[in-house]
Amino acid sequence: MFQSLIFILILRVFCVLAQSDENCETLPFQLHLIKEEYDELGRLQRTCDGEVTVNKCEGFCSSQVQPSVITPTGFLKECYCCRESFLKDTLVTLSHCYDPDGVRLTSNEMATMDLRLKEPTECKCFKCGDFSR
Question: Distance between CA atoms of 27 and 83, rounded to whole angstroms?
Answer without folding.
Answer: 12
